[in-house]
Amino acid sequence: MHFVRELMGITDLLCKKLQQKSQDIVNAMDDVATTKKLIQNLRDHGWCSLISDVKTFCSKHGIEILDMNAYYADYIRFRAKDQLTVEHHYRYDIFTVAVDQQIHELNCRFSEQATELLILCTSLDPKDSFKSLKIDDVCILASKFYPADFSEQEMNNLRKQLKHYQLVVPTNPKFKELSTVVDLCRLLVETGKSEEYHLIDRLIRLVQTLPVSTATTERAFSAMKLVKIRLRNKMGDGFLRDCLVIYIEKEIGIKFTADTLIDDFYDIKTRRVRLK
User: Fold this and answer.
1) CA nearest 99: which of 221, 213, 8?
2) Which of 82, 138, 196, 240 is the most exposed place for a label (fewest CB within 10 A)?
3) Distance in angstroms (rounded) separating the CA atoms of residues 73 and 87
4) CA dist list (Å): 94 to 13, 86, 100, 122, 143
5) φ and ψ at 244, to 5 degrees?
6) Per-residue pLDDT tens for 77-136?
7) Three-state DSSP class for residue 85
8) Phi, psi (deg, nearest 5) at residue 85
9) From residue 26, how far is each of 31, 44, 121, 197 by CA, in Å?
10) Whether the Cβ atoms of residue 199 and residue 157 lie closer than 8 Å to each other
């Protein structure tokens, strides 16, 4: 119990951060790095303090304390008496194995290559007046992770576009209050600069396909179970997609009123029945 509380206390902050719908990539990667360090520190130096806490807890509540130097009786896997102690069992067969599994899971989900990709993506972040914008990092991002999406000539043109982009976009008042890459992409289209900086716009759209967490994906699958039920199993893809967008993006859907929807419905074509 004490071990689980200690381990979950370390991973709790990261788990909560990754469940958020929107992510600050830099802060998310910082949380991953600190979580890895804390778990490794628990593995290297946490056993003695854990045992001390357990003994204090047992003494306080009148619980019998095991003799850690006694031989451990393993009824599942037979071993000679002199090969396994109680401390060896709890330290190496339970404590170390559980910690190593957590470290392995983090390393699998956030490998060095994936971490580098996410950190390079922050160079396109418009937050704080494009403070993170670095031309070299953007070029590395395109050449290393998206070589199939940019030809050699386009790679050279991308750097030239970035030099103009760095001088024009951050100083444009319309781009001052942006906080996410999604807002940046949308505003580039609205201002017509997506055509002027078409290579940068392409790279931004590719970056948006990289979710930091699976929270949004999990919500989508949960919504699908509620929308496409047994009585609606013949629902077409288009109608299902429209229903899921409204269900998942409730913050956007709540902004529309029934009257505006009815007006748009009538604008499509003439209707026989009047709804208002």
Assistant:
1) 8
2) 82
3) 12
4) 24, 11, 10, 39, 44
5) -70, -35
6) 655 545 688 888 888 888 999 999 998 888 887 777 877 887 888 888 888 888 888 999
7) strand
8) -105, 170
9) 9, 27, 9, 25
10) yes
Q: Enter the pTM of the model.
A: 0.55
The first and second tokens of residue 265, run together, are: 């419905």
Q: How far apart are CA 60 and CA 150, in angstroms?
A: 66
Q: Which amino acid appears at position 155 of this protein?
A: M
Confidence (pLDDT) at 41: 93
How long a stretch of residues is the chain? 276
Question: How far is residue 210's CA from residue 21's CA, in Å, rounded to a whole number?
Answer: 13
Q: How far apart are CA 244 and CA 227, in angstroms?
A: 7
Q: What is the DSSP letter of 78?
A: -
CA dist., res. 18 & res. 21, Å (int): 8
With a CB cutoff of 8 Å and minimum separation 6, the contacts of 227 are 235, 240, 243, 244, 247
What is the domain partition of the chain in residue ranges? 2-110, 123-207, 215-268
In this structure, which amino acid lies at residue 90?
Y
3-state secondary structure 132-151: CCCHHHHHHHHHHHCCCCCC
Q: Answer for the pair 50, 6: CB distance below 8 angstroms, yes or no.
A: yes
3-state helix, strand, coil in the chain (%, to 5): 70, 0, 30
Return the closest-CA partner of residue 103 out of 53, 44, 18. 44
- Residue 23 region by backbone torsions, left for phi larger than 0, else alpha for psi between -120 and 50, else beta: beta
- Residue matched to tokens 């451990």: 72
Residue with tokens 């001088």: 167
Distance separating alpha carbons of residues 229 and 188, to the nearest angstrom:
39
